[in-house]
Amino acid sequence: MRVVVSLLISTVSLSAACADLPAESTKQATVVTANRVTANRVTANRVTANRLPANRLMSSRLSDGRLTVNMDTAGKLLSSEDGREVFSFIVSCALPSDVFLEADVDGTTFEFAGEMGLTPEWLTSPLTPEGQGWISACIFARVNSSDVALPISMRGTNQALASDADERAGWSVEEGAFYGNLFTPLDQPILWIACRGAGQAAGESGGLIERDCAEPDPANPGLTKCGFIYAGDCGAYSNDQACEQFSASGTFYRRCHRAPLFHPIKNGGMNPAFSQVITTYVTP
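Given the sequence above, the corresponding structure tokens read:
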């Protein structure tokens, strides 16, 4: 039996536009599909229960663009429906749209499709710390406590996250930024961090109504409503911002911290900066 694992991805096609690359330059693009505008529906508890090591993803090549999963890396994850769902999001974040991974699980073949292409090198070599940061940010940005597939725009310094003017116009409400480390040791909690964007700070509207992971939880100070570490407000619209820089042309944050920049850390702790940051936007 062959099963294609679907992510319920809402594809948005935008024609003839100039895409602003993370390096602050531009390139000509004829079609923009779901590479930046993507859906989310995975929940935090599924991610927590289904962790993946950073070993290489590919075992062997079946044909051009079609590869088999390294079961030493993903075998345990693929043994359950929830694990396969989490793995499908990981593959979607890591690999480009022309790559598919196949895995045989107890006689059933599952197929997982690439989409964004943040870390294609993960196919053949262990994920680097930088790659771990990008996969972490991508998964965290796609967590949604309401388990609703809502299209979001994901932006950042990775070349795979380039956006164009039409996308920025359609997805114009800044939700927040996501970063941290999904690949912590199994006996330690996931380090997932979010800061609140300008749109979210202004109140609930549009797509924000179904998005809670960058929103502080009044019942649990220091955490968001998804259970992420709440770093405060992302940018300069706040007197106590968590991120050092904002790219005006790319509309994303750079170098974001676990706590606001000028916030005293308890017990003299560190306030590290994270360079692999994904800023998310929703529709008005």
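The first helix runs from residue 44 to 49. Try to locate this feature in the token string yourself.
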